[in-house]
Amino acid sequence: MRTSVFCFVVAFALQYVLAAKRGIVTLYGSLDSLRIDSGPCPEYENVFEGYQDAIHNFTIEVYKHVAPLGTYQFVVSSHSMWMTLAAIAEGADHETQQQLFKTLLLPDNPCIRQSYYQLAASRFSLTPDVSVVSTRALVIDEGVTPNPLWHSFVTKNSLLDVITAPIKFNPPVAANVIRQVVYANFPRLNLRGNSVLLDTMDYNGLWNTAFADAVVKRAPFHNIAGQRIGSVDMMTVKRRAKVGYVPKLQSKMLELPIGTNNQYSIIIALVVGNNDLRPIIREMKSSIIKEVLGTLQESRVPIDVTLPQFTINSELDARTILEDFGIKNLWTDPEATRYISTPPALPSSYVQRSTLTLNKDGVNLPAVVELRSFGPPSSPEDQFLSEFIADRPFMFGLFDTETYSCLMATMYTQPTYPN
Ligand SMILES: *[C@@H]1O[C@H](CO)[C@@H](O)[C@H](O)[C@H]1NC(C)=O
């Protein structure tokens, strides 16, 4: 440990001397945030809750921003974006760093930040039952040298990878490298800077309890006004689950566990009546996630659950989103990224791709429901919550059930088939 820190310091000093010789004035390591050993965290800090609040806040901010951009059909991995931007924040100049800390709700204490990063980096999974995989990369031009201190920090904390491509010398080759990293098309990839930021998240998992096998069938899908706008392949199951009603969202809620040990879950909000989604989204605060979690309760009766099967894929221009949040220097002022590399990384684009698939497969078969043992739903509330039929626009989030921080946030409004 001591030796590696020592090597590090030597490497850093060498780099600095070489840079100085070339006449490049960079002050690597002047940032407290890059100290390798940040000491013990203050004991009073509730890291878990701070991390949760940070992710919830960023998720809702991004969600509210992305939703009105298109057809209200999208998936966004705010979690992966949060990690990517945290890596950039750790090497940004003071002004940009403070802007990013504010946007990501990152505290000034570097030890607490590192604790957040540990929580964030341990949310992924690549097991036979659940795959939640994220790639986060800074692709830099050949000839751009990452600051070894920063590079080691972001690698150690699993925040970001640094990849080299001939951005200036051969843009088509660079564009290919980038497409291969993220399996995306990027119609408008701007390669005018020294680097490009990329991040992706892919979800594919088995429900803890499968949907009933034989009953996937084509069924109508409606808009908010209740008019049929196409159709989807519906999967159905009758089972007990956590349900609730959240007045602020005008929505019925349902939680369906994922994986052998319920490691993840999807929480769905289905707007009832003819309520317009737009004002509901505009009014969302990050506290809504905790309200939802507080409302969900195991149903007393089995619920008729009907959900479309689909794959949803979104590519987002994250640079524009961040510019709207007031983060502008990062893309235009080389000073902002001068602690990240020499010459400064100066990213010109930031693209995120997220892909999520829902199908009927599960770890366990659904239990045969003995209707008689439950009887008919007794109260009007039970009656209301005994059906969850997602044949109209709905929102949902993918959560890990240890921290209940949101990994992907989604809205589904566009049926698979036009009629
Ligand atoms: C996120 O946190 C900031 C700072 O606490 C707050 O002003 C903002 O309203 C929060 N955003 C949401 C969507 O709740």
UniProtKB/TrEMBL annotation:
Keywords: Protease inhibitor, Serine protease inhibitor, Signal
Origin: domain of life: Eukaryota
PROSITE patterns reported in the protein's UniProt record: SERPIN
Domain Serpin positions: 60-415
Pfam families on file: Serpin
Higher taxonomy: Eukaryota, Metazoa, Ecdysozoa, Arthropoda, Hexapoda
Name the UniProt record assigns to this protein: Serpin domain-containing protein
Gene Ontology terms for molecular function: serine-type endopeptidase inhibitor activity
Residues spanning the membrane: none
UniProt xrefs under InterPro entries: Serpin_CS (IPR023795), Serpin_dom (IPR023796), Serpin_fam (IPR000215), Serpin_sf (IPR036186), Serpin_sf_1 (IPR042178), Serpin_sf_2 (IPR042185)
Family: Belongs to the serpin family.
Signal peptide from the UniProt entry: 1-19
Any single GO CC term annotated in Swiss-Prot or TrEMBL for this entry: extracellular space
UniProt organism field: Helicoverpa armigera (Cotton bollworm)
UniProt key word Amino-acid biosynthesis: no
